[in-house]
Amino acid sequence: MELLFKDVFNLYSTDIYLPYNNINSVDKSEWCHDVNLKDFDSYIKNYGNPCSKLNHIRFTVVLERNEEKICLKIFYLEKNRRLSKKFFKKTTRIQFITYRIKDSAVFYGSVDNYHRKRGSSKYLRRFVFGQKDIIMDMVRELRYVHGRKEVVDEINLIKDVESPVKKFIEIISEGKGSDSETLYKFILEKQGVKYPNNVMSFVDSQSPTVNKKNRETFGGKYIDAFMSLRGYKGKKIKRVLHSVNSFNSQAFNNLIDFFGLSYVLDTSTDEELRDIFQYKDLNNFLVRKPFKSNFNRIEKLNIFKICLLGVKGSLDSISIMDHLNFHSRINKFEKCKWLSKDVNGFMSEHILWSDKVSSYDNGDFNRVYSKNFIIGVENIIKGDKTKFLPVVLKNSEEYNEESIIQSNCVRTYVKRPESLIISLRDVGNSNERVTIEYRIKFDGKILELNRVQSLGRFNSRLDDYWNYPIKLLDDRIYNMVKDGLFTDLGVEVNFNNVKIKSGYKVNEVTISKVLPMNNDVSITNYKIEWEYDEKINAIGYKSNEFNIYVNDIDMDF
User: Fold this and answer.
1) What is the predicted pLDDT for the residue at 359?
2) Same domain (yes/no): 378, 300
3) Residue 180 lies in a domain
4) pLDDT digit string (tens) for 423-433?
5) Residue 66: domain span
6) To which H or E segment does residue 441 belong?
7) Are residues 198 and 145 in the same domain?
8) pLDDT digits (tens, 9 = 90+) for 120-156
9) Which helix (H) or strand (E) holds 111?
10) Are 439 and 551 in contact (CB under 8 A)?
C-alpha cells in the first residue's frame, strides 16, 4: 500500500532499585526504589539489570491507500518487564477506519493483542450514519497520543494534532474539505441519500439507525426514514427535526410515556418541542408511570411546564422526580394540588411539600457511627485560599438545620439506613455549604461508601470552586473505609417516650436471569436495612416506599 503519512514515537521508563534493603525498613520484603529515568540510553543500559523495572510504549500513526481502500490506523505497543523478572509482557492494539472506494462503504474497529496467533480480540463494524461520530472518536485517540508525546522533549511534535484525520478526509472527499461534516455528507451523497441541511445533528442519534433498506422505502429521504423507524408522525415533528442542532430522544420518549403523544404535540410550541429533542443533560430525564395520578387539566399543564423547565436545564430533573414523590406521599393523607408552573413557584412549593412530608415523621432520630470514623471525617480540609469543614449529620436537629439553610429536603433522609449525609462547609462562612450523600453498600464482605450526589442550596449544581475539597473528601472516605474504620451503623429513635435502638442488617436478594443457550444465572444483591425495620418504619412513612431510580440515585435533596 502507498504510505501517505506516518508518525512514530516512543516512551521509555526505567525504575532502578537498590540491590539491598534498609535495615530500618518496615517491610523487609520491599525493594528500595532508587531513581526513575525516562531516556532511551538508560532503558538500554539496564536491559539486563534484574534490579530494574522497564517499560516501553510505542505509538504509530499511519495513513495509507491502494486502489481498493484508504486506511487510517493507530498502532499501540507496550513492553513491560517487572522487577527481577527475565521476560517482558507485550501488549498491542490497533484502531482503524477504512474507506472502501468502490461503494463508499466505511468500516471501523480495533484488534487487541494482534501480535498473538491466538487470544487476540477483534472488533469490526460497518459504519451506518447515526451510530456514532467515528471521526471524533479517532480525533480523541490522536489527542491522547499527542498528549503522551508532549512529555517527550526530544520529539518534534505534529503541529496539528488532527492532521492525519484531515488528510484522510481530504483524500476521500476528493479535496472538497477536511472536516467530519464533509466526509459524512460525501458518503451520504455517494449512497444516494437525500439528507437535510442539519444532518450532522443526527450523527450520534444512535439506535435505531437509518440503513439502506429503510432509505429505499422512502426514496432515499433521510428524515422520512428516520421518523418511520422511531414511530414519529406528523408535519410538526418533521418540521422541528429539520431545525434541531442536536438530537436526543430520551426526554421526548419519557414525556409522551407520561403525558401521551397527542398531549405533548398539542401543548408544546415548535421551539419547546425542539428543546425537548435537544435535551443535553447527562442525567436521564425520567417521568415514571407509577407517578401518574388523577391530575386535573390545570395540574397536568403545570407539570408539563415544569418538565419543560427541566428539559431546558432551569430545574434539575431529579428535583422534579422528588416533587412527584412528595405529591404521591402527601395525597395519601390529605388533598394536594400541583400549583407551581415556574422556577420560583416550584422552589417554594418544593420546600412546603418537604415540610409536610417531614411533619408526618414525629420521631427524634439519632444515627450511630463509629467514633473514629466521625473524628476522621470531620478534620479540616485545607484549600488554596480557604478551609472547609466536613460535618457528619447525626440527628434530627442537624438534618433539619441543614434542610433550612440549604432549602432542600435532606431532613427526610435521617431514617434511611443506606444514606450517609455530610455537610461540607466553608469555614469562613458556614452558610456556604454543600450537602453530600454517600450511599452505604454491602459487597458481600464489608460496608462500602460511594458518593451519589452533591448539591448546593435549592438543589443547585455546584461550580468548580467545590471540586477540590470534594475530591479530597472522597479520597479521605475511601481510605477510611479501606482501613476498616467504617464499621458501626445504627439508629436510636425516641418516639412518644418510647426508645428503640437498632443496628443494621443485610438482606440478600437473589435474581435469576436466563442468558442465551438457556443458561440460568443467579445474581445476589445486598440491601441495607435497620434491624428493627418494621418498628422504625412505622414511625412516620416508609423511607423506601417510593423509590425513583435515576443513575443509581433515588431522590435529590
Assistant:
1) 61
2) no
3) no
4) 999 998 878 99
5) 2-172
6) strand 429-442
7) no
8) 899 999 999 998 899 999 988 888 877 765 544 434 4
9) strand 105-112
10) no
